[in-house]
Specification:
Layout (H helix, E strand, L loop, with lengths): L6 H8 L5 H18 L3 H13 L6 H11 L3 H13 L5 H12 L1
Amino acid sequence: MTTKGDKDYFNSCLGGYMSSATYYKNVKRINDIKSKSKGDEDKEIQLATTQANRITVKGKSLNRFRVAEYLNYPKIADIFMRRAFDLEQVDTGTYRDWQIGILL
């Protein structure tokens, strides 16, 4: 049986695209941002932006976006979605739909 916090549940919700190692690494990275910021929203944004800007490999920012969204960290997810757009991992329509979804 899978529970909300584990990789199998995550992949069952999103179509099974991420390996266990990649999933847990991304969870660790997102949780590190949350723990290092200690509740300071500006620090959280700074850490996520720094991490996102260092990503150059296609797929990595999109995977990190999906994990942040799944963990219900929309501000962190937005930073990684923006980076995925910058790296041309998502098209303009997908990015626009994400931005509209944040506003609703």
